[in-house]
Design goal:
Elements lengths: L3 H32 L3 H14 L24
Helix pairs in contact: 1-2
């Protein structure tokens, strides 16, 4: 297991297996988005597909306020 060529072989095989599994998983998510009985499951599967396609919602928003604020308190 410590030999470089053995490690390389294992990494190659793992990548091949993950690639095949990813294709099956994507098909399952697509099937759920299209035909799950639960609307919640459809929504979550649809959001997952959009996220993986690169249409991810904005995580943060930046708000910038410009201007001066001046407070004067007259107690006398």
């Amino acid at each position: 297991m410590k030999l470089p060529h053995v490690q390389q072989y294992l990494m190659t095989r793992m990548n091949e297996e993950f690639g095949l599994s990813a294709t099956l998983a994507a098909g399952t998510v697509r099937r759920l988005a299209m035909g799950a009985k639960s609307e919640y499951v459809q929504l979550e599967a649809s959001k997952d597909l959009l996220d993986r396609a690169g249409y991810k919602p904005i995580d943060r928003s930046q708000v910038q306020v410009a201007g001066d604020i001046r407070v004067t308190i007259d107690l006398g």
